[in-house]
Each structure stands twice: as structure tokens, then as C-alpha cells.
Amino acid sequence: MTQEKVLVIAVNQTKQEDHRFQSSLHELVSLCKTAGGTVEEIITQKRDRIHPATYMGEGKLHEIHEIIETKEIDIVVANNELSAGQIRNLSDVFGVRVLDRSQLILDIFAMRAQTKEGKLQVELAQLEYLLPRLHGQGTQLSRLGAGIGTRGPGETKLETDRRHIERRIYDIKRRLQLVVKQRSQYRKRRKENDVFQIAIVGYTNAGKSTLFNRLTKSSSLEEDQLFATLDPLTRRVKLPSDMICLITDTVGFIQDLPTALIAAFKSTLEEVAEADFLLHVVDASDSDLNQQQKTVQKLLEELNANHIPILTVYNKKDLVHGEDFIANQFPNVLISAYDENDLYHMMLQIESILKEEWGFYTTHVHPEEGDLLYRLKTETLITHREFNEEKEQYVVQGFVRYNHPLNRLVEEK
């Protein structure tokens, strides 16, 4: 498949931190690559504010138009969200397709969605993004279905029928409500069974899926690309003490994630808010890790998940050189997801945090109470277990969640 030639345009507003601007630009180039494009040129302009009609100043537009002609550019991607008018005006000046950052992210999500739910969520986000911009799309919509920014709700002739989009949005929301209901019932069952739940969160491409696969011996998609994982996967995993947990791999976060996307993926992101523990995976080798950590923390706050116990997992330690890396989140652990010893050390670290959060117990269990012994082993963190010959019973010590049903049982014994 031939890659489309992309020209990236970005306005560096004077009030914006230069470092944040550069990291966002670098990210946009990665997004273009993930979507199947080759970035031929990057044009930036420093302005107090974005031009309300044409995004950039007139002089810059002529310069860009010449580059488009010379380098035979297929598509122009803006680093900010564009209004319908801006898209129309830029398309008229450039004579090629114009996308903004949000459309590009939505396009990648459309490409990545595997499950029925994922596809519906992406289509909903695309339609909700498109609806207020309909009159700005012009001839672009007739090309839906071929190339970057065209994946998703292709065959619906969106430009001719606003009512059709509104009906489709209503229909998708209704269908997603059923999925949300099923997902919440599933979560409720998990809660009733009191299985401890860990969610892996982090910036896109930090190595979450690699970590998930190594811990669970499964094979979800691992790629050196943004948003390789879209649909959340949940598997069982055992801590060193033999306690059994459920672990979920979630969609990666990114700066300026489109609001429509956050809304559409609400039920998926609720997996994070419902977790008992978070593993925040950070690419320790990324020069922009501080900004990435802030983005994840901000999104966790928006999801009301910032109160959940968390371990920051600085991943890709094999790519960290000398003094380049300084941890600034605590508690933390520095690992390579491919190193078994590192993974074991990380699991011990999880247990150590939980011991500080949970209550200590000592209880006596008769040998015929096999079910209780098994539950203590798989649902609590056992630190000591021995058989008392004299009393003919097991002495078990460990840590249990304060709101766990076993908490009451061990207190009574």
C-alpha cells in the first residue's frame, strides 16, 4: 500500500510552553506514521492566537501551497482542532484534504477497533465530531473510504443527510447502552466474587500490552505504534503470595485526546475507575516522560480514579542510558517487561504497597476447612502459614482488604 504524503502545520501560540508544543508536534508526526502516512514537511508559525478563519497567516498559507505543489502532498494535518470554516478555507487554498489532530486520532481508532463495541464507540465519536462541522467538509466527504482521515462511517453519504447522522448517533447510543449494561453486570459479578482488580494504565506506546502479555502469558497486540491496543482485555494473574487477581490492559492515553472519544469510550475507561489497583506504565527512555505522566494523571482525575493505590512502572530500562533517567513518581519500580526477574520484583512491590493499605490478620483454620484455606490463599496476601500439631489446626497470617468478606471471617476466628 503506497503511503500518503503528509504536510504537518502547527501554530505555536506565544502563551504555550515551547516544550509542550514540541512534544505535541513530535506526537503528531508519530500519529501520521501510525495512520499510514509519511511526513514530508513540518511548517510552524508563532502567533499570539490561532487565525479564526485560516488557522495561520496569509503569507504562511502561500508558502505551504508552494510546498504542496512541489512535493506533491496528499494531505495536510493541523496540530490543533479546526472549525468547519477553517477546514473549508484551508482546503480551498491548498487544493488537498485537510485534517486536524482529533480527526487523525479518530481515524487511527477506526483502524484499530476490533470488537463490535470498539467499532461502535469509534463510529459514535467520529459522527459526533463531524456533525457540527458538516457544512465545512465540502467535497471531502465524497472521498470517504480511501486514505487517512476517511476510515469509519464511509458509506453513509454524510454530506447529504444530517438527519441520517442524528438517527445513526441515536441508534449507536442505544446499542452501546446495552453493551454498557452487560459490562457493568460483568463488573458487578467480579465485585461480588471479590476478585482483586488491577488496571494497567499509561501513555500510548509505553509498553502496557507487552507487560500485560508477559504477566498473563497471552498475546494481545504488541506494536511500536500509537494506540496498538484499543479494546480492553482482562486475564487472571497470580501474585508471588499465590493471591489471584484480574488484570486489565486499557487503551493508551495521549495529550489532547478528543472529547468525543473520551465520551464514546466511557464504558471502556470505567474499567480504570472500577479497579482496586493501578499500574501506571511509563516509557523511561522517552525524553518527554514528565509531560506524559502529567497527561495520564490529569485523565485519571477526570475519570475519578486518582484515589486508587498506584505503582508507577518505569518500563524499557534497557533503553535508558546512564544518568538520563530520574524517577519523580513514588512508589515506583524500574523494569524491562522482557526481564522475568524485573517482573517478579514488580509483583513483590505490588504486594508491599497492599500490605500498607490492608489490615493484618492472624487466624486458626481446621484442616477440614479446605475451602476457607483456599480462599485465604487466593484472596488475601498470606505471609505465614504453619500447621500446629498440638492444636491440630493451621495458623495463618497475612493481609486482607478492609471491605473483603473474609475480613469478618478471620476476625471471628
UniProtKB/TrEMBL annotation:
| PROSITE patterns xrefs | G_HFLX
Quote the subcellular location field of this record: Cytoplasm
Q: Which UniProt keywords apply?
A: Cytoplasm, GTP-binding, Magnesium, Metal-binding, Nucleotide-binding
Which intervals hold domain Hflx-type G?
196-358
Q: Is Cytoplasm there in the keyword field? A: yes
Spell out the InterPro entries in the cross-references.
Answer: G_HFLX_dom, GTP-bd, GTP-bd_M, GTPase_HflX, GTPase_HflX_N, GTPase_HflX_N_sf, P-loop_NTPase
| Keyword Nucleotide-binding included in the entry's annotation | yes
Q: How does it assemble?
A: Monomer. Associates with the 50S ribosomal subunit.
Identify the HAMAP family for this entry: GTPase_HflX
What family does the database annotate?
Belongs to the TRAFAC class OBG-HflX-like GTPase superfamily. HflX GTPase family.
Q: What does the UniProt function comment say about this protein?
A: GTPase that associates with the 50S ribosomal subunit and may have a role during protein synthesis or ribosome biogenesis.
Q: What is this protein called?
A: GTPase HflX
Q: Which organism is it from?
A: Oceanobacillus kimchii
Species lineage, top-down? Bacteria, Bacillati, Bacillota, Bacilli, Bacillales
